[in-house]
Amino acid sequence: MIPAILKSNLKGLSGEIAVPGDKSISHRSVMFGSIAQGKTAVTNFLPGEDCLSTIACFRKLGVSIEQEGNRVTVAGKGLEGLQEPADILDVGNSGTTIRLLMGILAGRPFHSVLIGDESIAKRPMTRVTAPLSLFGAQINGRNNGEFAPLSVQGRQLAGVTYELPVASAQVKSALLFAGMQAIGETVIIEPMKTRDHTERMIKQFGGEVETDGHTIRIKGGQTLTGAEIHVPGDISSAAFFLAAGAIVPNSEIKLKNVGLNPTRTGIIEVMHQMGAHISIEPYENGSAEPAGDITIRTSDLKGTVIEGELIPRLIDEIPIIALLATQAEGETVIKDAEELKVKETNRIDTVVDELSKLGADIIATEDGMVIRGKSHLSGGTVSSHGDHRIGMMLAVAAAISQGDVQLHQKEAISVSYPSFFEHFDSLIS
Ligand code: S3P
User: Fold this and answer.
1) Is 24 one of the annotated binding-site residues?
2) Residue 26 pLDDT more than 80?
3) Is the Cβ atom of 25 under 6 angstroms away from ligand 1?
4) 429 pLDDT above the threshold of 80
5) What's the chain's average pLDDT?
6) Pocket test for ligand 1, best of 50, 168, 338, 345 (most atoms within 8 A of CB)
7) What does the entry list as the binding residues for phosphoenolpyruvate (predicted)?
8) How many CB atoms neighbour CB 73 within 10 A?
9) CA pair distance 429, 427, nearest whole angstrom
10) Does the Cβ of 261 fall within 6 Å of ligand 1?
11) Could you tell me which of 225, 171, 163 has the C-alpha nearest to residue 32?
12) Is 142 assigned a ligand-binding role in the annotation?
């Protein structure tokens, strides 16, 4: 395939954009809508490939779902309404779909088979299959349940107490879906706080879940009722324009209706720490997921250290933070981020390799990376490696590169942000 030529050496970005709906919340709106009784109406749904894979899977499970752009209507018939799929369930590139779906299917009285693309086939599933087996679930997969394809024979589950070895909202959410169908109570203990969209949405659908610090409790046998869900803009998508606004000269960008759930706002804290001119106008609408407008201006940045409890709150933003760090004075150290190795790609390797090709001073470490700035990025030929967030980070890197940047596998971006380049072009002054 011929690589795409990206716009480089930009002189300024200005204007307003509303980034598309949050990916994590969009997935969950379809999942909860499908297992609830009655109609669920979703607005500002993200029509990216990952969330469309979730819709396709639930349709195969017998749920009637209408989707037109960013509006979705789900005709839920309750957990009991899900039917044995006649065909395999293909999750495409979506880790959230496969992992959360396992938690739902583990307790349904039928058989199903889950597959995904090349990247999904390499991602670890034992983190979900092992705790689900403690509930009594029967799941098989390649290499003793470690990898997809996975086959699930659903059965009656029993609640467990489980301490998560890794901070993962996907694993926590899968176990909450299992716990909701299990006999008795399920207690999940997180090593660090991770995104809590599942917990918030359970309540939106009339269910009960209790959170006390890092401990989450849920009772089995709950019935959920369809709801109206408005999905805020995805802060993980906004992150690319926050970075672009900070590092492209003469820029000022306003990002409208961005989700500001505190379990996701690590990027804002880090950018403040680095000296970025960010201002936030939160909306006072009392909705389940907080949101607001964010304005960013070109800023002089300085290096920082990112570690510990902050990592799960910005895990998907590390590729773009690495780019920011190349434009910051001094050293930036990212540690405690081994999880990057099991994302859509090994994001320690893909970030370091691709930014090095453009002339950045960046090295990989066992649990993160070290970046020294400020460096002038030259042109070069790079690849997303099929990873949407690497593709978008490289498009922002091109904007400040002096030479031409050619990007292989640009199409990966449609997984989470199909209108990314349209939005980017609308800001070029
Ligand atoms: C997600 C959780 C995170 C994140 C992923 C979406 C979710 O993964 O990286 O993009 O929707 O729950 P982990 O839970 O594996 O950290």
Assistant:
1) yes
2) yes
3) no
4) no
5) 97
6) 168
7) 23, 95, 123, 170, 347, 389
8) 15
9) 6
10) no
11) 225
12) no
DSSP alpha helix (H) spans, 331-428: 347-357, 388-399, 420-427
Residues 260, 294: Cα–Cα separation, whole Å: 10
- 346 alpha carbon to ligand 1 midpoint, in Å? 14
Please report, for residues 294, 321, 379, the alpha-carbon distance to residue 324 in angstroms, rounded to integers and kept in the order given. 17, 5, 17
Domain boundaries, the chain: 4-21+232-427, 23-213
| CATH 3.65.10.10 matches 23-213 | yes
Point out the residues that are catalytic.
316
Same fold, 4-21+232-427 and 23-213: yes
Of 374 and 429, the one with more pLDDT: 374
- pLDDT above 70 coverage of the chain, percent: 100
| DSSP output for 353-422 | HHHHHTT-EEEEETTEEEEEE------EEEE-TT-HHHHHHHHHHHHT-SS-EEEESGGGGGGT-TTHHH
Atom of ligand 1 nearest to the CA of 312: 16
Q: Which of 24, 51, 126 to mutate to test the pocket of ligand 1 (most atoms within 8 A of CB)?
A: 24
Q: Which atom of ligand 1 is nearest to the CA of 172?
A: 14
Ligand 1 centre and the CA of 170: distance in Å?
Answer: 5
Residue with structure tokens 């593709």? 391
Give the position, in ligand 1's atom list, of the atom nearest the Cα of 342. 15
For residues 239-264, average pLDDT: 98
Task: Give the Å distance between the CA of 255 and the centre of ligand 1.
Answer: 23
Instruction: Indicate the residue type of 173.
Output: S
For the cut 90, the answer to whether the pLDDT of residue 84 exceeds it is yes
**347 annotated binding-site participant:** yes
pTM: 0.98
Q: Which CATH superfamily is domain 4-21+232-427 in?
A: Enolpyruvate transferase domain (3.65.10.10)
Query: Where does 80-190 have alpha helices with state H?
Result: 95-105, 126-134, 142-145, 169-181
Span between the terminal Cα atoms of the chain, in Å: 31
Distance CA 382, CA 401 (A): 12
Confidence of residue 1 (pLDDT cuts 50, 70, 90): confident
